[in-house]
Amino acid sequence: MTTRLFHISDVHFGVEDRAALAAVAQAVADERPDAVVCTGDLTQRAKHSEYAAAQDWFAALGVPVVLEPGNHDMPYFNPWERFTDPFRRYHRLRAGVPDGFASDDVVLVPLRTTVRAQTRFPWSDGVIRPDALTATLEALAALKGDPRTIIVIGHHPLLGPEGAAKNPTIGGDDAFAQIAAAGAHAIISGHVHVPFYQQRSMGGHDLRMIGTGTLSTRLRHGVGPSWREIICGPGGVIETRVRSHAPAVP
Question: How many independent structural domains does the chain possess?
Fold first, then answer.
């Protein structure tokens, strides 16, 4: 037996690609994956109307939904709420969609990569706070000896492109090293709107970095809207392919 996940990200309700969303919803209806995992940027400006549209779409899928917020999912037009309770709207959405994903093949461990404010501008790239990393490492420690494939989920990639002079995710290098040493098999993310699959190494430990594209109209590098199918077996077995509504993504 294996477990099949549909990994989506960067839906950006408010500027969503409705045809791409319809294609994903139809694939879910036809193929019944074990869960849909969305790694953030569910909305464009975290408006109540955008969250309502996101909740309607996710709730209609009829399969378990696993969510993590992205940098776009904190209020843009309500600074008081952003600084006092930045994920209030996100948590309301999460409570309104099907939950309860469990598998004998794979376990998903969240990593929060978004913060309400940064010491740089713009505030779009990732920051790994010590408390967020500690929560993830504690969850990984509790899974020591677990035979399932362990996948960490977060919005921002932990490392920049190979060969890049600077990592856009603050704290990403340390997080990557500690998560890899803790026994995770992969980390899946979004944010860059372009699919990628990389085997990276740090401190003598390997970790697969797997990214999916966007389902919005905010396309980059000429890559059309896409999502990723991930099939997992125990012990780190992961097979994956990119699926697209537009012409095939290489």
Answer: 1
